Amino acid sequence: MGVQLREPVTLQALAELVGGTIVGDPQVVLTGISEPDQAAQGDVVFAWTKQHAESAFAGLATAVVAAPAFVRAGKPCVVVDNPRWALAVVLEHLFPPAPLPALISPKATVEDGVQLGEGVFVGDFAFIGAGSVIGAGTAVFPHAYIGRQVRVGAQCRIHPFAVLHDRVVVGDRVVIHAGAVIGREGFGFVWDGAGFRRIPQVGIVVLEDDVEVGAHVCIDRATLSETRVGRGTKIDNLVQIAHNCRLGAHCIIAGQTGLAGGVVVGDGVMMGGQVGVADHVRIGEGAQLAAKSGLMTDAPPQSRWGGYPARPHREWLRVEAALAELPDALRLLRQLVQRVEALERRSG
C-alpha cells in the first residue's frame, strides 16, 4: 500500500512536473503513489531498475514512470532519464512540509544578545545561548539546545534534542535531526605518568550549506582548528565523526560509520553502513567504501574498497571467493597429507 494524493492528478500534469515524455493516454487520473509490488488501481509507480519496471508493468498500477530502457507496452507511461529523481520532485511538490509560524515560545529560553532573523520558529523548552545568531526562516524545535556564540544560517531545521555546542557554525538549509550532537569536545588524551590527561579541544565544527545530519550523529570539535563537513554532504543516523576530520562536498555517509580523528575525505565520496576509517587516513575524491569496510590506509581518487581490512574492490572479491573454497581446499590438503604419510610408512 502506498500513499494517497490529497487531490487526483493527471498523467499530463505529472509529466509536466518532471519534464517527461508521455506514452499512452495523458488524461489518465492518478490517486496514489506506490511501490511496484504493492500498487493498486489509480497508483503510479516509479521504476528505476529493471526489476521495478517488470513488476510495475505486470501489476495493478495505472501508470508507470520509467527510464527509456525499461518502458514496456500495456500501461500509460512517463519516460524520464532518472525516475528516482522524478520521484523526489513529485513528492516535494505533492507533499510539502507544513509551514511553521514565526513564533518564539514563551517556554523557550533565549539568552541576552541572541539575534533572531525574520520568521524564526523556536519551540517549547528550546535553549539558545548568549551571542548566537539564528538566520531567517530557521526552525529550532522543542527541546533543542544551541549553545553560546553559535551561528546558524537561514532556512535550517534543528530537530528536538539536537545539541549544538558553543561556537558551532552552520550554513544555510542545514537539517540536524533529533539527538545529534554537534561540537562535542573531541576525544583527546595524553598519558602523564599517573593517568590520562585531557587535551582541551578548543576548535570548532563547521557545517556548510545544505548538509543533512541524521539522528544521534556525533561530530566532535577540533583540537585547535575546525572539524568541517562540506556543502551538500548527507550523513545517516548513528555516525561518529571525530575531531579534526574534514569532509568534502556532496559525500554520502551511511549509518553506523565511524571516522577516527584527522580523516580527510574528498568530494563525492560514498561510504556504506558500518564503515570504519582509521585516524589520519586520506580518502580521494569519488572513492567508494563498501559496507563494513575497515579502511587502514589512504584510498586514491575514484577507487573502490571493501573488506576488513579494506582492499581494492576486485582484490576483495577475489579474496571472498577464495574464502568460500577454503573448507574444500583444507579437506583436500588433509587427504594429501594422509596419503603422503601412508607412502612414507610403506617406504620406511
UniProtKB/TrEMBL annotation:
Pfam family of the protein (one): Hexapep
Lineage summary: Bacteria, Candidatus Fervidibacterota, Candidatus Fervidibacter
Organism: Candidatus Fervidibacter japonicus
Active-site residue numbers: 243 (proton acceptor)
Molecular functions (GO terms): N-acyltransferase activity; UDP-3-O-[(3R)-3-hydroxyacyl]-glucosamine N-acyltransferase activity
Name of the protein in question: UDP-3-O-acylglucosamine N-acyltransferase
Function of the protein: Catalyzes the N-acylation of UDP-3-O-acylglucosamine using 3-hydroxyacyl-ACP as the acyl donor. Is involved in the biosynthesis of lipid A, a phosphorylated glycolipid that anchors the lipopolysaccharide to the outer membrane of the cell.
Database matches in InterPro entries: Hexapep (IPR001451), LpxD (IPR007691), Trimer_LpxA-like_sf (IPR011004)
Entry keyword annotation includes Acyltransferase: yes
Family matches, as HAMAP family: LpxD (MF_00523)
